[in-house]
């Protein structure tokens, strides 16, 4: 996951504060020619975002190999082929595991960390900074270093096993373990984001609520369940959207740790797109997978945003 | 009035300490591995008696890591400045002229945040090839600016709407045109949000891998993430050098994080919450 914040594209109306609409008084100060200011950006988006999206759809309907001058229109053949493609199905399932798995771990761990960090005074900011640190580091770099833990020869994990008389294990040669490792590495790298989102949410919970509950004899767990969790609703929404979308786009960690292997068993949809295009020279097919990924992300964003009806946490 | 069900302080610190150590562990193994010669087969848990600097030399000479850091610095600085300037310019009319048309433009720009970079790999690569932008810095800069601009526009627009209009009204009375107003009045007020935008875009661009790994394939142009990944892949038998390359590439970010830690975390969170 890369840190890609996801504002809700559906709630533009909410952003427009009432009473700030253009009226006759402000019209003079902000003349129409002000709109010229956004024209350069629109040109940039038209050429490098919108055009590729459209051209991607049209390429996905061809059998282009990526370099030849000839390409034939094949209709929806590429999409039909996807339905029977074992490798694509695996990548799709993996992508969901990466997305959902990381999201779960990050919420549980991130909320746990936030709750305890909120309760201690000493060393809180140092611990927070350390736990947050990997967010700043490139997933490529972190993946390289995690490789030192999971590799066969001299791997840190195998050395611990050897200490207890266990045998050396080729961890990343197993698809299941590879997938689990990718989820764990991605979760640990970005758990800091969930943590600070929940910390910000916790700071917004009035202490009087806890005091009142304590007077009524509520246990710690009761207070947590009936005060903290409901009041953290907006933080849950923000963190879940952010983590899930990030996990579904996962590319870097997979590429560095397993390269999609062993076989093709740990690919995410993103890494599969790169491999299909450059290694298998199936550009049209790769473009079709790209369209599917785009539709998946858009669909998940809209569903999540309407499901979670997210509000904002104030920092 | 201590509650029996409350986790004790000692337990809390033990748990937090464990997670914090877990987060530092990969860096520790990176450090021990990078400091040992290839022939030293001791466990990465063991710290070497003396530091073996040759790995760092290999990383710089064969991995072109210093060049990659220079390339990343260039790409990151230019892209980030462009994102801030274009972001502010684009947001201004969207924040101040709230018409139907502009609301539509705004909604379209914000929707672009959803596009996963890899989903348009084929058409984008083809387009860049036609424009002659493969293996060039301007090519990757254009892609980084396009990718980071929607979020910048979102943050700038929200911030500008929170600014009072009265100052701009006064400036108009004094005869300031739109450009003058933007440069003299509005830009100076944008400092806090510019810090957020610059941190978000800067860190993202410095670490970017998904597109740059395909668009930059020469040693002369490669940025740090694809350079480390490429070197790592080619050094299967020499993890020490690969670890050294990783460590070198982290130094600039770590230094920035060390000095600007508070604003970094705040900026990243602000960007994700808005």
From TrEMBL, chain A:
Bilayer-crossing regions: 36-54, 96-117, 129-149, 169-200, 231-251, 285-308
Compartment(s) where it occurs, according to its Swiss-Prot or TrEMBL record: Cell membrane
Q: Please list the residue ranges annotated as the ABC transmembrane type-1 domain.
A: 92-304
Q: Coiled-coil region(s) at which residues?
A: none
Gene Ontology CC annotation, any one: plasma membrane
**Keywords, ordered alphabetically:** Cell membrane, Membrane, Transmembrane, Transmembrane helix, Transport
Q: Name the predominant localization.
A: membrane
GO BP field: transmembrane transport
InterPro entries on file: ABC_transporter_permease, MetI-like, MetI-like_sf
Pfam families linked = BPD_transp_1
Q: How does it sit in the membrane?
A: Multi-pass membrane protein
Stated family: Belongs to the binding-protein-dependent transport system permease family.
Q: What is this protein called?
A: Sugar ABC transporter permease
Q: Which organism is it from?
A: Microbacterium esteraromaticum
């Amino acid at each position: 996951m890369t840190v890609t914040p996801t504002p809700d594209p559906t709630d533009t109306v909410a952003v427009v504060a009432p009473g700030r609409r253009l009226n006759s008084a402000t019209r003079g100060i902000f003349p129409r020619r002000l709109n010229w200011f956004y024209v350069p950006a629109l040109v940039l988006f038209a050429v490098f975002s919108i055009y590729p999206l459209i051209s991607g759809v049209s390429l996905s309907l061809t059998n282009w190999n990526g370099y030849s001058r000839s390409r034939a229109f094949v209709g929806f053949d590429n999409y039909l082929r996807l339905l029977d493609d074992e490798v694509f199905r695996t990548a799709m399932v993996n992508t969901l595991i990466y997305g959902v798995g990381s999201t779960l771990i990050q919420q549980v761990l991130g909320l746990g960390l936030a709750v305890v960090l909120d309760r201690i005074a000493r060393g809180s900011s140092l611990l927070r900074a350390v736990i947050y640190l990997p967010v700043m580091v490139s997933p490529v770099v972190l993946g390289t270093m995690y490789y030192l833990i999971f590799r066969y020869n001299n791997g840190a994990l195998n050395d611990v096993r050897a200490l207890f008389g266990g045998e050396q294990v080729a961890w990343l040669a197993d698809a299941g373990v590879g997938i689990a490792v990718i989820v764990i590495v991605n979760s640990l790298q970005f758990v800091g984001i969930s943590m600070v989102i929940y910390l910000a949410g916790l700071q917004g919970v009035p202490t009087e609520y806890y005091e009142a509950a304590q007077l009524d004899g509520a246990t710690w767990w009761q207070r947590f369940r009936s005060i903290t969790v409901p009041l953290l609703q907006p933080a849950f929404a923000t963190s879940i959207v952010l983590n899930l979308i990030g996990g579904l786009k996962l590319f870097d960690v997979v590429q560095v740790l397993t390269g999609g292997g062993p076989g093709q068993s740990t690919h995410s949809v993103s890494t599969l797109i790169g491999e299909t295009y450059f290694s298998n020279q199936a550009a049209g097919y790769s473009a079709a997978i790209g369209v599917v990924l785009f539709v998946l992300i858009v669909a998940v964003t809209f569903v999540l945003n309407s499901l979670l009806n997210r509000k904002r946490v104030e920092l | 009035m201590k509650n029996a069900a409350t986790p004790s302080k000692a337990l809390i610190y033990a748990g937090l300490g464990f997670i914090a150590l877990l987060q530092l562990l990969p860096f520790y193994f990176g450090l021990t591995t990078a400091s040992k010669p290839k022939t030293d087969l001791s466990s990465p848990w063991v710290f070497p008696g003396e530091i073996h600097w040759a790995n760092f030399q290999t990383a710089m000479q064969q991995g072109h890591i210093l060049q990659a850091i220079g390339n990343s610095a260039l790409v990151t600085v230019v892209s980030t400045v462009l994102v801030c300037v274009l972001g502010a310019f684009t947001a201004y009319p969207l924040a101040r002229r709230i018409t139907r048309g502009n609301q539509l433009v705004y909604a379209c720009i914000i929707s672009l945040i959803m596009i996963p970079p890899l989903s348009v790999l084929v058409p984008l690569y083809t387009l860049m090839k036609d424009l002659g932008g493969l293996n060039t810095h301007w090519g990757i800069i254009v892609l980084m600016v396009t990718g980071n601009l929607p979020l910048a526009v979102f943050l700038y627009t929200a911030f500008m709407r929170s600014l009072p209009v009265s100052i701009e009204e006064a400036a108009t009375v004094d005869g300031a045109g739109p450009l003058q107003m933007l440069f003299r009045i509005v830009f100076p007020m944008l400092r806090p949000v510019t810090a957020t935008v610059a941190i978000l875009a800067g860190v993202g661009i410095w670490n970017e891998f998904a597109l740059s790994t395909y668009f930059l394939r020469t040693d002369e142009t490669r940025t740090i993430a694809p350079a480390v990944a490429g070197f790592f892949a080619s050094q299967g038998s020499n993890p020490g050098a690969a670890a050294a390359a990783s460590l070198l590439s982290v130094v600039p970010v770590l230094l920035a994080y060390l000095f600007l830690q508070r604003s970094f975390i705040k900026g990243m969170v602000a960007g994700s919450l808005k």
